[in-house]
Amino acid sequence: MLTRIPPRVRALLILSILILIAPMLFPSSFYYRIGTLIFINSIAVIGLVILIGYAGQISLGHAGFSGIGAYACALAPTHLGLPPFLSLILGAVISGLLAWFVGRPILRLKGHYLAVATLGLGMLISMVLNNEAQFTGGPDGMMVASLGLTKGLEGLFDVNLKTSVVWYWFAGVMVLLGAWIALNLYNSPTGRVLRSVHDSEIAAKTVGADVARYKLVAFVISAVYASIAGSMLALFNRFITPDIASFLHSVELVTMTVLGGAGSVLGGIAGATLLTALPQALTVFHEYEHVMLGLIMMLVMIFMRDGLLPTLRKTLTRRAIA
Amino acid sequence: MKLKQVVKTTTLAAAVSAMTALATPALAEVLIGSTLAITGRASFLGDPEAKTLAMLVDEINAAGGINGEPVRLIQYDDGGDPNKARTFATRLVEDDEVVAVIGGSTTGTTMAMVPIFEEAEVPFISLAGAVAIIDPVKKWVFKTPHTDRMACEKIFTDMQANGISKIGMISGTGGFGKSMRGQCMDVAGDFDIEIVADETYGPSDSDMTPQLTNIKNTDGIQAVVNPGFGQGPAIVTRNYRQLGIDLPLYQSHGVASKSFIELAGDAAEGVRLPAAALLVANNLAEDDPQKPVVMKYIEDYQTATGEPVSTFGGHAYDAFKMLAAAMETAGTTTDSAAIRYALENTSGFIGTAGVVNMSPDDHLGLDLSAFKMLEIRDGDWTIIE
After folding, report:
1. pLDDT tens by residue, A213-248
2. Any idea where the Leucine-binding protein domain is (chain B) (predicted)?
3. Which CATH number fits the domain B149-281+371-383, given the four candidates 3.40.190.10, 1.20.1530.20, 3.40.50.1220, 3.40.50.2300?
């Protein structure tokens, strides 16, 4: 029965059910925050699934785009008078344009040039955010205007709502939207070209695909995803520091993507869930937190080469057949 | 038969455990939360703070707790990441349901957490430096460390006493130097001091002679201030003497450690700086009210951890002691509002940072006397005042 539904619809269905039933298991309202953070990270990771999983390109500077998105939401409302939601879109446009501008020359080359270029780009963005203290508040960070979601809903229905609960549903819908776009892309002509680039650039070129153009498309899309995730984090936390654009955050995003299974959207979300929730579960071990995280990552890399979810799926189907 | 035995033993075990559970009524605990940058870039702040808190909790529990109730510290490590800090703050408030929170090693993490404690109405004592934390005053937020604004004021007071009115500044571009430079610019006017030269250097620069030459060639300059942290100020001090600049040099509280004197060597002679009493504990006058407090903290901390003290651990010491005192004054370990009120009315509290007198308009409660003006003479600190 379940197998007759097309895979992308099935993935969306599973995701919606998980988002719907998770709150029933929450022991306190604090878990809504964790849920929201998982969703926000998932959005950035879905973008990276398109770039890494579909097109086979590595970016080590995606936190930079998150930084642009975040600071767009922090700066545009005060300096340009834009409402926060339009600032989110402005950030996404700036990130997309910047990705296009940087990616155009770089993606004509083969190999790891994109990783190196994005590494530099991410660091530059982080430096600008740290040093232009008169605009960004420097390393101490700055306040961000509210999106007004909770206030708006409270006014509409005359109820008292918790910000994190409202955000849980809002971010959940955003994740579904992001996943829907990425899943549709997978089987679209563009998605097929991207996957062929991943398998072999030469083969893709031989059959007439404009490899550089399609790599650029994937890069720009993933930058927009990262930027929207950054904007959402800023609007959710109402406070932002340059840490969001740090190199470590870039690495964290790539780790989430690869850990869960770079080729699949659900895998990416699983990776984001694990790496966002695990530090909360490991606070008991406090001193050993980083050791445990490292160990889990090593084990996944050694024993589950395709990532968490694809390996799990493979084992399950093999069992089912046997 | 076998099954019967199993049932019997289980019932027995259940009965026994139920009885022991009844015999030991659940003790009320004082839950105090804390999130600090124990690891990561700011761990030089969070590590001594966390160790100090752990030590104080053990100490207070050994002495019978607060109002007879044992204290339990719920400690998280945010690694200096504001996003993580905010998550832990939410967890402390909504999941752990603590009565008060100490922490926020950095200004960034503190500012990210402030809205949560304001909304949940939980008293929060920050251990971070910036004046923005308590200015404007936030109802539920307090802090213990001196601000860089106070360091500027202390330096300018000393300058004024020596008839200095035109100065040059050479500041590090790290968070500390940048923030203090801004504060000094802000308050200079109040002391009739004019900043006639303003130079900066990067955190990893190894030669500041060009900037210092610019300062030296500025007309009418009478003294130089160097807000900065780490090795930069030591290099500035060496270059300063190499260029033969014969004007008073003021460093910030950021270099108030023995390693600065070692790094700068003979060039450090005559350098003046503001510093907390904790660093010059041995040089304090015998009748100084702070002397017994800081001497005890230094001894306790060194026995507990085997490490030398730092001012940062001192901030945590002040915060915990002040909170415990507020709970005792308020006579409650659960009523947040009463504890907050008692904290706000803290007066005459003697901590490692100075004498604290809080008020509804001042959630720091330190005045300039909290800083001692030091001069380096013969490779050691000398209190001048």
Report:
1. 999 999 999 999 999 999 999 999 988 989 899 988
2. 30-364
3. 3.40.50.2300
Using the Cβ of B108 and the Cβ atoms of chain A, whether some distance falls under 8 Å is answered with yes
Encoded tokens for A282: 């490991």
- Work out how many domains chain A is built from and give that number: 1
The answer to whether the bond into A84 is cis (omega within 30° of 0) is no
On the question of pLDDT at A321 being above 70, the answer is no
Report residue A152 as tokens.
């708006």
Flag whether residue B76 sits within 8 Å of chain A, measured between CB atoms. yes
Strands B249-251 and B349-350: unpaired
The pLDDT value given to residue B7: 55
H or E stretch covering B355: strand B355-356
CB–CB contact A233 B95 (8 Å): no
Q: What is the mean pLDDT of chain B?
A: 87
Query: How confident is the model over B296-325, as pLDDT tens digits?
Result: 999 999 999 998 888 889 999 999 999 999
B175 touches chain A (CB under 8 A): yes
**B82 contact residues in A (CB cutoff 8 A):** 141, 237, 239-241, 243
Q: CB distance A140–B173 less than 8 Å?
A: no
By the CB < 8 Å criterion, does A205 face chain B?
Answer: no
Describe the crossing of helices A84-106 and A113-131 by its angle, rounded to 10 degrees.
Answer: 140
As a whole number, mean pLDDT of residues A44-51 equals: 95
Interface confidence (ipTM) of the complex: 0.82
Return the amino acid letter for A123: M
Which residues in chain A are closer than 8 Å to B76, comparing Cβ atoms? Answer: 283
Residues of chain B under the 70 pLDDT cut: 1-27, 385
Closest C-alpha to A99, from A86, A112, A118, A113: A118
Q: Which CATH class is domain B30-147+291-365?
A: alpha beta
* Token representation of residue A82: 């834009």
SS3 state of residue B375: strand
* Nearest one of A10, A39, A41 to A23, comparing CA atoms: A39
Averaged pLDDT for residues A46-55: 93
Tell me the residues of chain A between 276 and 295 that have a Cβ less than 8 Å away from chain B: 279-280, 283, 286, 289-290
| Model confidence at A62: pLDDT above 70 | yes
What distance in Å separates the CA atoms of residue B246 and residue B240, rounded to the nearest whole number? 9
In this structure, is residue A229 part of a structural domain? yes
Q: Is B43 on the interface with A (CB under 8 A)?
A: no
Instruction: Note whether residue A133 is domain-resident.
Output: yes
Contacts of A38 (CB under 8 A, 6+ apart): A269, A272, A273, A276, A277
